[in-house]
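Exam revision sheet. Question 4 asks you to relate a sequence to its structure. Input first:
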Amino acid sequence: MDRKQHIAIFTTASLPWMTGTAVNPLFRAAYLAKGGERKITLVIPWLSLKDQNLVYPNNTTFGSPSEQESYIRQWLEERIAFISGFDICFYPGKFAVDKRSILPVGDISEIIPDEEADIAVLEEPEHLTWFHHGKRWKTKFRLVIGVIHTNYLEYVKREKNGRIQAFLLKHVNSWVVSIYCHKVIRLSAATQDYPRSIICNVHGVNPKFLEIGKKKSEQQHSSNRAFTKGAYYIGKMVWSKGYKELIKLLRDHQKELAGLEVDLYGNGEDSNEVKEATKKLKLTVRVHSGRDHADPLFHDYKVFLNPSTTDVVCTATAEALAMGKIVVCANHPSNDFFRQFPNCQIYDDDNGFVEATRKALNEEPAPLTDAQRYELSWEAATERFLKVSELNQVFAKELEKNSSKKLASISLNLQKKMEDVSAHLHYMALGFEATRRAFGAIPGSLHADEELCQELGLANPRGRVRVYKKN
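Answer key, structure tokens:
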């Protein structure tokens, strides 16, 4: 019997941190494993207790990887209607406070045995490889696919000396992604461009939101009051996540939007500043703590306002559409996927925002068709992923291992040699603590420390991480 194709999905975050790179790769693993045709391993970061306290909400912590895995599987099982048999394993990670991100420690490619190294999916490949020092991903795996989640350049531009930092980061990102990935999937054109990349939204929405939308559609057919609340926005409460743009639009057009009431939901470093800014408005804007978007509290809102331009594909926008709401969002590449839905109101400028908001509040959302609902689902997203990544074609043939390789052009050979040299330079540079710190790595992240080794069952810094399987 032929061995199953093995796909290892590496990502930069894990539940209970409710961020896109924790949630979306988890659903991707579940839906790729559905049907049992492939062997799937989800590879996620493990944090020491000190870092867990900094990252995970509501004082949630775990004493062992198996305890966290149980939490993750329970969360997933409450949201999907099937049992998905994929493996979960952990790599050592540390939380970088200055970057508000989890960074890998050591060579995390070692987690997958060489004999099982078919395909690697790097969720945020630039993030995973900035400080990589170990076996080259393209050498270890037959195919490496990078999925670009984050518009890092847009965030960096908003910092001090942002344009200079963005220029440097753009070239560093291009460097590491080109030497470590065979193929790159950009969720939207809002991301940095990369060689060998294709634009395709390979994300779906939590099935819970589609169920909510179905119920709302039924209510619309039986009555005219399916949505009894007005406008809201939900997102991490930091200025760069759309709050700056939204507060400005509301402040500059208070007269035209007289009578508008907006509820804001989120937690974040800028919560207090956002609250103070809303107090200066004549409009009624209420600020609340963050909650799960599927909470019944949100079901009756009719209009989701999202002026953010830092997203790549906004998960909350997709969720709002799935629940049958009208979405008012900016004319921006991150929203291109949503243009196909009649409930998506795109605006070009301030006047367009006012007009779209007024219109949304004065009309009823169009019920989603079955085809539109499917387009938002993880089933459709998985189909798109398989198509653009060409996984089936890759597994059906040996990659560049026959005599035709001798016919490769001189230019291609030269390009490969240059890439090999570039990869070697990256390997050498990131092998020294001083260089790593100069690049921005966390001190002591070349190898896992004793605490992480003990918690993960590593015999030594180069030992392999234990895999926790679903029984």
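Marking note for examiners. The radius of gyration is 23 Å.
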